[in-house]
Design a protein that fits this description.
The protein contains 12 helices and 18 strands. With about 400 residues, the protein is an alpha/beta fold. Strands 9-7-5-2-10-1-11-15 form an 8-stranded parallel beta sheet, sandwiched between helices. A hairpin with a 2-residue loop joins strand 16 and strand 17. Helix 4 packs parallel to helix 6. The structure holds 6-O-phosphoryl inosine monophosphate and magnesium ion. The site of magnesium ion (MG) has 4 residues, from loops. Magnesium ion (MG) binds next to loops.
């Protein structure tokens, strides 16, 4: 069977760490969407590592890591990451596999991402500028190049043809930065990529399943950044939810068993877009500092706020979450009082639902207040060691994450 670990908020919920924690119980860890916009932080031998393209199970011996067809792959980022991971003695020939259907991020995709964001002025999405949106546009627009195409003798001419198309778009944006250094890097990195294990991902993973091997699908970003159900247009360009596992790996829905949703004990968002429980004040700053809330991919300060149960229930409903993991609750150790958003008032009316367009309505989050615990819990190893006030806080969320019409 396939279990899934994914983020329920706006990304950065701590998915990488949770995948790393559970990885030893699985034979295959597979990324099913997103690209180097992800920043999954792990600690290996006390060293901090941020993975962008390679699945978070890569440091476990005997665990196979698959980059699925739903991912967009930047060979340059991958090359750097391979060097980093190999430095820890990991044999990537043995445990990294890449689907031939995975779409490539080209240097011009990065340029287009930058040009498009610049042209948006105040309406910027706050993209990581890794070329994600343009690469997925070329996928759905039926122009993109895939990893399997690298092995074709016509790759360079196909590349040049697509590059010319991109150049016309860049000219429209009046974007004229010299990207020739990016292209040199790209073609060097492609040589490394060609030497890795390029496989037919859908047979690869279904064969593992038939052999009875356990598969863990690792999500990137979060449900509120999903292309369909997130806070559009302030979203990423892929299907970040459980449904994305099926088309991002070639797995049938009946194969999916546990859906482990990861949420922080509070909320963060990096980049622009609606965030009803945001605290643009000292409390938000305290969350940012205590939780080291700075982007793992871009270093940007993350926006911080209280946990939002309306958004969380929505995400749990859409994903079919069966288990909830809460991370970073110890960041709340020093707060005297905590708030949990249980309802929205939308244009003055109470609602339990995430509205179609959060930016077009006035959302006033309704809070339930909880006393803080004011002692350090970072060293606690089991639930019984936690202070009563913390257990209350966790239990309340645990009882309220399922959406129901009542
Ligand atoms: P992980 O996997 C948090 C955000 C960007 C921006 C929007 C669109 O580490 O949780 P994109 O580069 O995808 O075009 O950016 O999505 N974003 C993330 N925020 N964590 C991530 O990944 C993110 N990946 C993209 O900040 O607002
Ligand atoms: Mg991250």
């Amino acid at each position: 069977m396939v279990d899934v670990i994914l983020g329920l908020q706006w990304g950065d919920e701590g998915k990488g760490k949770i995948v790393d924690y559970f990885a030893k119980d699985y034979k295959v860890i597979a990324r099913f969407q997103g690209g180097p916009n992800a920043g999954h932080t792990l600690y290996v031998k006390d060293k901090k590592i941020v993975l962008h393209q390679i699945p978070s199970g890569v440091f476990h011996e005997g665990v196979i890591n698959l980059v699925g067809n739903g991912v967009v792959l930047d060979p340059v980022v991958l090359k750097k990451e391979c060097a980093l991971v190999s430095g820890f003695g990991v044999d990537l020939k043995k445990n990294l596999f890449i689907s031939e259907r995975t779409h490539l991020i080209l240097p011009t995709h990065r340029a287009l991402d930058k040009a498009a964001e610049l042209s948006k002025g105040n309406e910027k999405i706050g993209s990581t500028l890794k070329g994600i949106g343009p690469a997925y546009m070329d996928k759905t627009g039926r122009n993109g190049l895939r990893v399997g195409d690298l092995l074709d003798k016509n790759f360079t001419s196909n590349y040049i043809r697509l590059r010319l198309k991109h150049q016309k778009l860049l000219d429209n944006f009046s974007f004229n930065e010299d990207i020739s250094a990016w292209e040199d890097e790209f073609f060097e990195a492609v040589e490394l990529l060609k030497q890795l294990n390029i496989v037919n991902g859908e047979y690869f993973i279904n064969n593992k399943l038939q052999e009875g091997k356990r598969v863990l699908a690792e999500g990137a970003q979060g449900s509120m950044l999903d292309i369909d159900f997130g806070t559009f247009p302030f979203v990423t360009s892929s299907s970040t939810i459980t449904a994305g596992v099926c088309n991002g790996l070639g797995i049938a829905p009946q194969k999916i068993k546990e859906v482990i949703g990861v949420t922080k004990a509070y909320c963060t968002r990096v980049g622009a877009g609606p965030f009803p429980t945001e605290l643009d004040n000292e409390t938000g700053e305290q969350l940012r500092q205590t939780g080291s809330e700075f982007g793992a991919t871009t270093g940007r300060p993350r926006r911080c706020g209280w946990i939002d149960l309306v958004a969380l229930r929505f995400a749990c409903m859409i994903n079919g979450v069966t288990q909830l993991v809460m991370t970073k609750a110890d960041v709340l150790d020093a707060f005297k009082e905590l708030q949990v958003c249980t309802l929205y008032k939308i244009n003055g009316k109470e609602s339990r639902e995430v509205p179609f367009q959060m930016t077009r309505v006035n959302i006033e989050p309704q809070y339930k207040s909880f006393p803080g615990w004011n002692i350090s819990t970072s060293a606690a190893k089991s639930g019984s060691e936690l202070p009563e006030a913390m257990k209350n806080y966790i239990n309340f969320i645990n009882k309220n994450f399922f959406y129901s019409i009542a």
